[in-house]
Every structure is written in structure tokens, then in C-alpha cells.
Amino acid sequence: MQSLKVSRKERELQRHRWEILRVALKMFSESGFHGVTMQDIARESEFSVGTLYKFFNNKEDLYGALLLEKIDEMEDALRDTLEGDKDEMDSIRTFLDGLIGLVKKNADFFRLYLSEITRTGPSALSSIGIELKEGREREIARLAAVFERGIRNEVFRDLDPFLLAAALDGMISGLIIQYLEQGDRYPIDADTIMEIFFGSILVDQPEGKKQKPANPNDNHAMSSQ
After folding, report:
1. Mean per-residue pLDDT over the chain, rounded
2. What DSSP assignment string belongs to 88-145?
3. What is the pLDDT of residues 188-222, one digit of tens each?
4. Most exposed: 57, 62, 114, 143, by fewest CB within 10 Å?
5. Is the pTM of this model over 0.85?
6. Domain at 70-204, CATH class
């Protein structure tokens, strides 16, 4: 059987590529795509420009690899939170907790990501934007599936599940933008989002059947008045 062990040389190359992407992410998030050159990245990462070109054809290739590889990591981290037959409110709370945790650990990436998915008009990087938007659409589709299940189970009012998912996604994006710009002045947490969003869409239920928040200490009113 052929050995799957990665050689020391391959590990070193992977480490170099990771370091280049790490530095590039920080620089792009601070100065934007057009404010950074390959020479800037080489100097900051302490590699030669030639080394950068061993891994990436040009700046657009580096930028695209950075965004698309990172969004794949995020999707993998969040996918399981919305799939399966878990309680609908628990699924969404778990998703929110996971997403907020990723935002706080990857603020530089989310600044770039949000700038790309909100980009309008023709762009030299439109193919990257399209792929990122497709990833966001997959996330909205997974949220919509949870809302659809909740509507069938009479947890949520009978509204369009895709509109509910898009509305929640838009609210989350807006709060993330405020958090990234203002920090702790606009704290972001799952409890606050759920209290604001779900108060108007939960179905009124008999006392014994009311949906309980995942956190037993949470006394926020979650059902509609």
C-alpha cells in the first residue's frame, strides 16, 4: 500500500502557503484588495515574491484561494448545526452560537467576506463574489429547511420559510457588521438575536406545549404576544 505520510518538504510547503495566506488576509482586511500588492505581501510575510508565485498565479488567484478556502472551512464547521432532526429552536441556537464564535475568532475574514457578498455592479473579482454568494445561498437553504420543518410542527407561523431564512440571515449580517466596526459597543450573542427575531414568528401554543429556550436560565419571552 502506498504511504499517505506527508513528507517533511511537503509539510514545509504547506506551512509556507498557510503563512502567506494568513498575512494576506490581515493585509486585505485592513487595506482592501486594491490597496495591497504581491510585493507588500511578500515583504510582510518575509518570503520572496518568487515564492508567492510558486503557490499563486497572481494576486487575484491568491485572494480567491484565501476567501474560498476559508468559506469552505466555515461551511464545514456550521453544516451539522442545521442538519438532522433536532429541535428547530435548538438547531438555530446552535447555529448562531457556532457562527458568532467563528466571527469573533475570524474577524479579518468576515470583514472581507461581507464586503464581497454585498458588492454590487461589475467587478474584476465577480467570479469570486458569485462563489461566495452561492455558499451563502446554501446556508440560507439549510436555514429554510429548519423553518419549513418548524412550520410543519406548528412551532413557527405559516410564513415563507425562505423569506424567514433570508430575513434572519440579513439580520445576522447587519449585527455582524456593527460588531466588526464597533466591537463591544454592539455585542452580538445568540440570545439577543433569538429574542428579537423569534418573538414575532413563534406560534401561540397551549402552556404545556410551548417551546422552551435551549438555555433553561433564559427567561426571555420567546412566544408572540
Report:
1. 83
2. HHHHHHHHHHHHHHHHHH-HHHHHHHHHHHT--S--TTHHHHHHHHHHHHHHHHHHHH
3. 889 889 988 988 777 765 444 444 444 434 443 33
4. 57
5. no
6. mainly alpha
Q: Which of 30, 73, 23 is nearest to 52 (CA)?
A: 23
pLDDT tops 60 at residue 73: yes
Q: Are 128 and 68 in contact (CB under 8 A)?
A: yes
CATH match for 9-56 among 3.40.250.10, 1.10.10.60, 3.65.10.10, 2.60.120.10: 1.10.10.60
What distance in Å separates the CA atoms of residue 49 and residue 209, rounded to the nearest whole number?
A: 64
Here the cell at position 50 is: 518568487
Q: Distance (Å, rounded) from C-alpha 2 to C-alpha 7?
A: 13
φ, ψ (nearest 5 deg) of residue 202: -70, 140
Residue ranges of the domains in the chain?
A: 9-56, 70-204
Please state, in angstroms and rounded to a whole number, the distance separating the CA atoms of residues 116 and 111: 9
Residue 132 pLDDT exceeds 60: yes
Is 120 a residue whose pLDDT tops 80? no
For the record, the C-alpha cell of 188 comes out as 452580538
* 131/97 Cα distance (integer angstroms): 25
- In the structure, what pLDDT confidence band is assigned to residue 37 with cuts at 50, 70 and 90? very high
* Dist CA 194 CA 212 (whole Å): 12
